[in-house]
Predict the structure.
Amino acid sequence: MSESMSDSIRPLAVVTGASSGIGYELAKLAVENGHDLVIAADRPEIVEAAQAFQGMGAKVEHLQVDLAERDGVDKLVQLIGDRPVDVLIANAGHGLGHAFLEQPAEDWMHVVNTNITGTVYLVQQVVRQMVARDKGRVLFTGSIAGLMPGTFQAVYNGSKAFIDSFSFALRNELKDTGITVTCLMPGATDTDFFERAGMEDTKVGSGKKEDPAKVAKVGWEAMMKGEGDVVSGVKNKVQAAMAAVTPETALAEMHRKQAEPGSGQH
Ligand SMILES: NC(=O)c1ccc[n+]([C@@H]2O[C@H](COP(=O)([O-])OP(=O)(O)OC[C@H]3O[C@@H](n4cnc5c(N)ncnc54)[C@H](OP(=O)(O)O)[C@@H]3O)[C@@H](O)[C@H]2O)c1
């Protein structure tokens, strides 16, 4: 088959944060399900990820770019060009542990700009294109963290509350179109997340976590079914259900026990 023929046949998936963790596994699932890829992340590991996905038979384009920057998102949109995007996985994100007052402003702003601003800026542009074709699937990686105040990870949990909420609002706005919007809500998952957030000495950071491949599979399947949201794992489903009926003050105190620096050493 010529490359131009395969270009026209294979659907395209755009996956942000595909260099590691849940995003890597989601991109892998996209390839296993016959997609070509446009992938982006901020650090050089995205090159190795691209090579791995190419080795699995996909056509892959990668971009090393900071998606907290408007310019970074613009570069990704330019790379996509006018190609139809069948699947958009808005997954790039990171946490930030420790007390809010101790966090440098540029660090928590980077959380907001990655998890919220860059994410919705990308989604707006790609979904406009999907609407023009009346076809597409969007998967956000939100979090059950969005269901509870994040003592010692306050800005991150707030950013995920935004994504969990935004995803359902966009889904409803698009309900009469051919576009589905799904929010994957993982609990603690075994990725680079806690190291990057400076939370390895916390109870949640040092405790048992879910396998990112399993989490990604749950998210991929929910997206393919067009579900509104999915919480991965039985324990997290219980936690999510409890969060809905527990006062915010109690949730904030419970989060302290999980995320306070040094809590993993007791
Ligand atoms: N692990 C958990 O417990 C957990 C639970 C619920 C939700 N989540 C969410 O799951 C998503 C994936 O995280 P993960 O757990 O898989 O952690 P991870 O292994 O650290 O992966 C995060 C990915 O996002 C990319 N990324 C982060 N900031 C970026 C930026 N400014 N610009 C471009 N790329 C950026 C990273 O690339 P670089 O390394 O190149 O920056 C990496 O590819 C995040 O949205 C996270 O909030 C994680």
In short: The first strand starts at residue 12 and ends at 16. The pocket of NAP is lined by residues 17, 19-23, 41-43, 66-68, 91-94, 114, 141, 143, 145, 186, 188-189, 191-193, 196, 212 (CB under 6 Å). The chain is about 50% helix and 15% strand.
